[in-house]
Amino acid sequence: MNTRSPLKLFFPYAAILGLAVTVYASTAGYGFVFDDFPGILNAHMIASAASLPQAVRLLGEPWRALTQLSYALTIKIAGTNPQAFHITNILIHGLNALLVFGIAQRAAGFWMATAKRELFALTAASIHAVHPIYSEGVAYIWGRSSSLCGSFYFGAVLLVMAGYRSEDRKKYLWYSLALVAGFLAWKTKEEAITLPLLIAGFFALAGCWRVAGGLILLPLGLIAIRWNDITRLTLNVRENQSAVLAGAAPVLDRFSYSLTYVKALVLYYLRMFVLPLDQNVDPHIEPVTTVLDPLFLLSVTVLIVLLVWSVVSARQNRVISFGLVALLVSPLLAYLFMPLADVVAEHRIYIAGLGFDLLLASLLTRSGRYGLPILSALVLVLGLMTLQRNQVWANGFTLWKDAEQKSPKSARPHVNLGLAYQSAGASDAAVAEYLHALSINPKLTAAYVNLAGIYFSRNDLTSAESVLKRAAALSPSLQETYIDLAIIELRRNQPGEALELLDKAGALDDSYLIHLYRGDALTQLDRAEDAAREYDQAGKLRPDLSELKAQVTERLQKLRQKGVIR
């Protein structure tokens, strides 16, 4: 009979949630950075948040539907205030730390002596709450894709473990709920495809080999069902035009990517778990082109040792074996088969952290009566490191200055730091950063386009035209360059040339800007009625933009004052 008081039963949960909230509370006041702008504050997302039915339609999106829905609902409820997004991320992380606690409790109940169970579960959850490797998944709003996926991923694992020793009726209820959680994880982020492998590992350790074998086939079935979507996604990822234009390295060929990823998996990701120093939003990973590369061979050796350790531990210490399975077949495995321009991104490691949490907790419980003092010291050190790392995510300046210092060979930090300066009105500093980026990589379209914006503000149309033509030559499918060149022609009172450029932009995609500036060109040609139709169309495409509405209203009012339209 359990004689523990309700307060003692509640304490671990409060302590874990308190740790998670404490180390990330300061991030609630941070702004949007990096991919938050194109990913969250884009036209599609804003339009989807206009009403609840429109937001729910995001569930029909083929990839990351629930992640997009979460952004749209946040906008619907709280607007585009970044504080609401950050608070949501903190709460998701707190929930995940509690789920890790539950998983650790269940694993300890299966495979660990009673005296060690409480410390084991508390340690695993506390490590997850405060480890700095999770900073990008929490302090960075766009990192929600991994942390939210983690909520459903961890939830599915916990539900399976709960159902394993339940009575028949409850067993099927738990397993059904686990299936729903797994589906939601998949709808949140595609890296959840590895979830069946982890659950298969659990059943294998529990001696249910037939169930484990069936679950291993599930990812293959998902791949077969979604093969066309996966193929399209792979092609889009490989092209990765926006990231490459913004300074990311081009995607490696599949062979080189796989070799490079194996090296990064061990020497960056796994190293960061053990020694979380020099974290970086844009780490430079030297490509591996041959299997004889010493660092690649070292990484393979480490992975083989971990694999052998997991097999050996399956008989001697199943908690260790389960932790290693959680680490090795986590979403980190999925990224081996999906070449990305960024070989490393720290938020992708979020779910894999479950394995490390369990491994470190298992090792710590062997320290006997020193376990709790060691845990306290470890939580303090890791918590302070997380507080320090979180400061980097405060704004674009702190983020990209940090990356610039740590990745001097990378052009992207200079491009993004230049954009931060440009947004703050420090145009001279911005120009210096863009030129620095171009000295590293002279094919950065984004740097030329951003420079053009600065030259526009200085009314230096000749310089703006020069860099825009360079951008158009490098990226002929980039609509923005043609629109900006058209604006130059409008300022020069050359409406015919402007319309030709806008037609090129329109052939790539429709945009309210095209119609707005077509209206200006037609106004210069004294085609007032045609201009009015273009202005109306611009407003219809983006009725959510108050600034656009004011611009359209002003232009139409001028035409009415001239008496050329009613």
Q: What do you see in this structure?
A:
This protein is mainly alpha-helical and 566 residues long. It folds into two domains: 12-41 and 80-394, no CATH class; 396-561, Serine Threonine Protein Phosphatase 5, Tetratricopeptide repeat (Alpha Horseshoe). It is 73% helix and 0% strand. The protein has 30 helices and no strands. The protein has helices at residues 6-24, 36-40, 43-48, 52-56, 65-78, 82-111, 114-130, 135-138, 144-164, 168-188, 195-205, 209-225, 227-239, 241-245, 254-274, 294-316, 318-328, 331-334, 353-364, 371-390, 396-406, 412-423, 427-440, 445-457, 461-474, 479-491, 495-508, 512-524, 528-541, 546-561. Helix 7 (114-130) packs parallel to helix 20. The longest helix is centred in the N-terminal third of the chain and has 30 residues, at 82-111.
Short description:
The chain has 566 residues and is mostly helical.
The tally of beta strands, per DSSP, is 0
Uncertain regions: pLDDT < 50 for 5+ in a row? none
Strand % is under 5%
Largest sheet: none
Shape, per Cα inertia axes:
elongated
- Average residue-wise pLDDT: 89
Helix and strand element order: HHHHHHHHHHHHHHHHHHHHHHHHHHHHHH
Q: Which percent range fits the helix content?
A: over 70%
The helix tally amounts to 30
Structural class: mainly alpha
Radius of gyration: 27 Å
End-to-end CA span: 85 Å
Number of domains: 2
